[in-house]
Amino acid sequence: MNDYDYLQEMSKGIHRIIKYGTSGADTEGMVADNETQLTVEITKGIFTGKIKTQLVGDYNFPNVLAAVAIGNYFKVIPEKIKGAIENYTPSNSRSQLVESGTNKIILDAYNANPSSMKLAIENFAKLNAEKKILILGAMAELGKETEHEHALIINLISKFKWDDVILVGEHFKKLNPPYKIFSSSNDAKEWFKQQDIQNSSILIKGSRSTQMEKVIE
């Protein structure tokens, strides 16, 4: 992506580079809407009209733009590019939107690292919803940075207004956060089952090892 310095660094020495991004690229686009599912508008390189995806979160924008750029490079007709992306339904807890009664659940529990957790929280904070509940599982494989990174997430959470925050895992528990805390996703599931949550938007995210999808099973 032309917007990210690290990708430009990684591509040094490659003779032919097809660029995609928000500016200065062969294929350009922008986020047209992010309530609740992502809509992307392609502004240069190919005309597809607005692409209304079934993905949650503007952090999926680079993935959509990359798919359009690849399709364009291989001369796939715009209507097929648009249709393929719009018909893609996320599964395996990857940016899924799950509707349960009057609640809308963003299930993004396939994996989590500090950057993806931060983006998911910030995106959720921007969402126009009456009630918002965060249910976050601990991040794995961070080594000596584990405590520091979890402390940063707790600090980020504190900057926004939520109706409730539930944290899962020992890495969060050790920091004694001012939120509901459970040792496992099974414990969080038992709490969740006992609540009468209605008309709420809920973000569920965590590392694969925490199995956060169990909360709503």
Describe, in plain words, how this protein is organized in 3D.
The protein is of the alpha/beta class. It folds into 2 domains: 5-87, Mur-like, catalytic domain (UDP-N-acetylmuramoyl-L-alanine:D-glutamate ligase), CATH 3.40.1190; 96-216, Mur ligase, C-terminal domain (Protein-Tyrosine Phosphatase, Chain A, Alpha-Beta Complex). Helix content is 31%, strand content 25%. The chain has 7 helices and 10 strands. The protein has helices spanning 5-10, 61-73, 78-87, 114-126, 146-157, 170-173, 185-194, and strands at residues 20-21, 27-33, 37-44, 50-56, 96-100, 103-108, 132-137, 164-168, 180-182, 201-205. It has a 6-stranded mixed beta sheet with strand order 5-6-10-7-8-9. Strands 1-2-3-4 form a 4-stranded mixed beta sheet. Helix 2 (61-73) runs antiparallel to helix 3 (78-87) and helix 4 (114-126) runs parallel beside helix 5. The longest helix has 13 residues, at 61-73. It is globular. The protein starts with a helix and ends in a 12-residue tail after the last strand. The model has no long low-confidence stretch (mean pLDDT 92).
